[in-house]
Amino acid sequence: MGRRRKRVATGDGVPNPRKEEKTPAPPRKEKKKKTDIGKMFINISIGLCIFSLIWFFYALYMRSSLARRVVTLHPSPRVLDANSSSPDVSPEKYWGTYRPQVYFGMKTRSPRSVVTGLMWMRQFAEMDGNLRHTCEQGDHLLGYGWLMHDGVSFGVQEVHDRDFTLTTEFVKRMGGDHGGDWTWRITAKQHGTAASAPVISLMFYTATDVQGSLQAHVEEKNRLSSVTGTSEELGNFKITFGKPTAGEGASGKYARYNYLQTKSPGLDKLTDIVKNSLNHKFDFSPPKGEKRFYFAVDSYKVTNHQNQQKDPKMESDFVVHQVTVQTPFQIEVLFESGSFRERPNQLVGSVLTDELEKRKVAFDEKFESSFGLQAKGFTSSQIEFAKAALSNMLGGMGYFFGQSVVQSAYNEHPVLYPEGPLLTAVPSRSFFPRGFLWDEGFHQLLISKWDTQLTKEVIAHWLDLINIEGWIPREQILDDEARSKVPSEFIVQHNENANPPTLFLALQELLEQLNAQPELPSSQTMIPFLRRLYPRLQIWFEWFNTTQAGPMANSYRWRGRDKDTNLFLNPKTLTSGLDDYPRASHPSADERHVDLYCWMTLASGIMANVARILGEPHLHILRDIQDPERLWTPYGLRSLSHSDPLYMKRNTEHDAPYWRGPIWININYLAVRALHHYGSIEGPYKKKAATLYQDLRTNLINNVYKQYMETGYIWEQYNDSTGRGQGSHPFTGWSALIVLIMAEEY
Question: Residue 371 belongs to what H/E stretch?
């Protein structure tokens, strides 16, 4: 036993198995190190993955948050209360001609208004089936527009078709809880040059907008005598269609009647539905006259109209009353509110005539007190022209409700802006029947002289559309009717794009009225209005300063300029409002735009003035103004100097000069206003400025009036060589500022 222990102790003989097991110890330590390093790398990888996922989701969240900003409205209290346009608050302005895109129609200032309107067509002529409804330059009318319109309670319009004239008149009468009653009177007279008395089909219609219902009441087989209806916004109502007569108190006339009652998938489809329902099977057989077949709506043909939407909940009632009669004739249409229970009489016949005459007298008196043109020596014809200019601006105001289509750099695709209303004037009923931000400030310069409260409402509507960034979509295309008139490439509004902040011009006018006549009732409400407006003005002003900043301190640059120097002679800057006015030949971030600098200078002074109320040119320029080789013409100032290398140059083969020479009334108004100012204050250039003011004012008035008398239209722009009107027409947007020039109201 002892030897064995010794051998084991000395290591002789058979190897000890335990000793053999201990020899690989060092390799096990290396393996352990490798295992620890592997675990470390795994842990690091897991950590990196977790961090990457957190960063990824954070980036998604941030992008989503930034993407939502463009459609997030500013959180400050709205300038207008939610019910400001309701019949409870503003009954006298609830109903109105708020559909500027149609020749004649009315609706309420509400989101889903029942709409009414007029279509017509000439029968038995070469142009059979030429339906008139929406204002179209392609209709080639001899002229149309409001002769008188007070913006509230009545209007008189003339539409001169090829061989007859339609006079459309309306009067409203207050009563009840839904804006009261109103009556239309349509008078048709043939032109003296017409070979024979035209036979005309008038189509009076009413349609709901998703909510509400209509019921047709038919007598004498095909004559629609009335329509009764109900809607959430109007309650119960009745529309009665009078029979045609030869005039007030005269006997009835032979007429044929047709009607259509169907469903509409949208207000933008009304024209198409009527066109697709027309049938030539109906006969017109007046006493002692030949039997002829005419076009009329067919009440059985359109029941399952091919354009109807599949979802019946989105369809709307649509009823048409057609009366076919030979000129001359007169027809009245009466709307009666179900809540007007104590009306003294119906607003028809002699009662309507008396009301019309009262409103006309009141309009004339207010016009003279507002503008004083008779006292200034203008002829009666010139004064009628000025009344038409004002009336077309007031009669061209629209009330829109819907959503703009917008996009920011963080939106992969266009998105819908929040729903909202907009009360605004429009530049042209035929070509631009919607709201434009930079046009509206000019519009309100004229309207503020007529109705200060209306201007405040319009400014508030625009500023209530501002988003959390301080951006207002510059072109308001809010519903299907508006979108149907806009090329698809102009529908999406991008939030980096601005428009001149001309609303500051209108605000400046309101502030001057406040300073001049603080005792007026309109001035008393001005301070609360400014308090609600100011936070939105502030964010709008700051948005310009941050998003439209130029390359150097206190410089500015319009975003959104075209970049293709191969396509354009000089790339356009639509966002500036001056479109193709020449700028740097190659757009870059180094540009500095002086016009935007001037707008910001104006805005900053008015902001300072507002802030004070709630708790401020060098005339060597005069030589250039009067130089015929630069700006001066016998018709007004050119938009671009005659000596400029881009004067009247085309941008492309199909892109004619726009702001490169023609005379624009809005810019001339600003020049006349400035000359009037410097010609009225002491200084070295007072006499020179006063002389230029008189000459320029006279030239503008004479030419715009001359063109109106010759063509029947106020035009978008005027040729700087001949003075002839050109562009879209009638253009009773800012071209109607000629009234302020005539009245010397600056």
Answer: helix 349-371
